[in-house]
Write a structure and sequence with these properties.
Layout: H1 2-19, H2 22-47, E1 49-55, E2 58-60, E3 64-73, E4 79-86, E5 94-96, E6 99-104, E7 109-117, E8 122-126, E9 129-134, E10 142-146, E11 150-155, E12 175-176, E13 183-193, H3 205-211, E14 215-223, E15 227-231, H4 243-263, E16 268-272, E17 297-298, E18 303-306
Parallel strand pairs: 2-11, 15-16
Antiparallel strand pairs: 1-3, 1-17, 3-7, 4-6, 4-9, 5-7, 8-11, 9-10, 10-18, 12-14, 13-14
Length: 307
């Protein structure tokens, strides 16, 4: 359309230069005004678009994740047509409307409602929303803009585990133990009379003075399960045919053990050599350690371009 308009404008300009007729000059000014106004209209109307995406940014395997993208025109200039398309990870299936073409009036609003299925654990990016529109006369070409993307974390599968009986070399702890050799000196269980061979450090001098005979403290057997998990995700150390299954199994085991230790209010750490998805541009299937709060986050200023 723009190419046809350019040829018409050039022909009118040549006719105005040759004939020097007032009507031709009026037509030339009219065409130039329509072009400039239409171009400014299309760009300015797209610049006033505001995008807001709301969804649960953390999910577990097998959960459905409803997503709502609200596209609002904050200005007074209507958009005759607006094409919207949400970019989604290929690993997650989407059901619903994530692309459409609409007309948006002044202060108008439209939404994209779709649902994702958490079929694979990992760190993903939802968006950005690609917008494209043009001027109301259809002669200035197509203008495009993009919003921002937001992270989505799908946690690995957690398997419920029984008792591990993990050993501990810590002299003080928080979990009860069946062996009396693991004694916590900060937890006094009871007191008894002094017997030959008892350590002098166990004597309770205040109770001994009150009773008139030596009293010895008895401590509660307990252990501390301060655990460090070492997860090897170096792809070169796994067989090529079983690389994906082996690493996924390792992640499931690490997550399950960490969940078991944390459920007993014990400290746990993780050391791994996997790739950080925040530093990569592709859609890697590895969890991240941080993401925004689960609330709608407005998009950054739109990036405009010429289509």
């Amino acid at each position: 359309m723009f190419e046809n308009f350019a040829w018409v404008f050039i022909l009118v300009l040549l006719a105005a230069a040759v004939f020097r007729d007032q009507a031709v000059f009026t037509l030339l000014y009219l065409l130039a005004g329509v072009f400039l106004i239409g171009r400014w209209w299309g760009r300015h109307a797209l610049e006033t678009i505001h995008i807001e995406r709301s969804f649960q940014s953390r999910a577990f395997l097998g959960e459905d994740i409803p997503v709502k993208v609200e596209v609002r025109q904050q200005g007074l200039l209507p958009l005759v047509w607006l094409r919207m398309q949400e970019k989604l990870p290929q690993s997650l299936g989407a059901v619903g409307v994530h692309r459409q073409v609409v007309s948006l009036g002044p202060k108008g609003c439209t939404t994209l409602d779709y649902q994702l299925y958490a079929s694979r654990r990992g760190y993903y990016r939802l968006g950005p929303v690609s917008l494209s529109s043009g001027d109301p006369f259809g002669i200035s070409g197509e203008f495009v803009a993009e919003g921002e993307s937001q992270p989505l974390i799908i946690y690995p599968r957690v398997v419920m585990l029984g008792s591990f009986g993990l050993p501990s070399r810590s002299p003080m702890g928080a979990l009860k133990h069946h062996l009396p050799i693991y004694e916590d000196p900060t937890r006094v269980l009871s007191k008894r009379d002094y017997q030959a061979g008892d350590s002098l450090r166990r004597i309770d001098w205040k109770s001994s003075a009150a009773l008139g005979r030596l009293q010895v403290k008895q401590y509660e057997p307990s252990i501390s399960l301060e655990t460090m998990l070492m997860l090897n995700l170096n792809a070169m150390e796994y067989d090529l045919r079983a690389r994906y299954d082996s690493t996924e199994l390792g992640i499931v085991v690490a997550a399950s053990i960490a969940n078991w230790v944390v459920s007993r209010q014990q400290a746990v750490g993780l050391c791994t050599n996997g790739m950080d998805p925040l530093g990569a541009q592709e859609d890697y299937g590895a969890p991240a350690s941080d993401s925004p709060a689960d609330k709608p986050v407005p998009a950054r200023p739109l990036k405009l371009g010429k289509g």
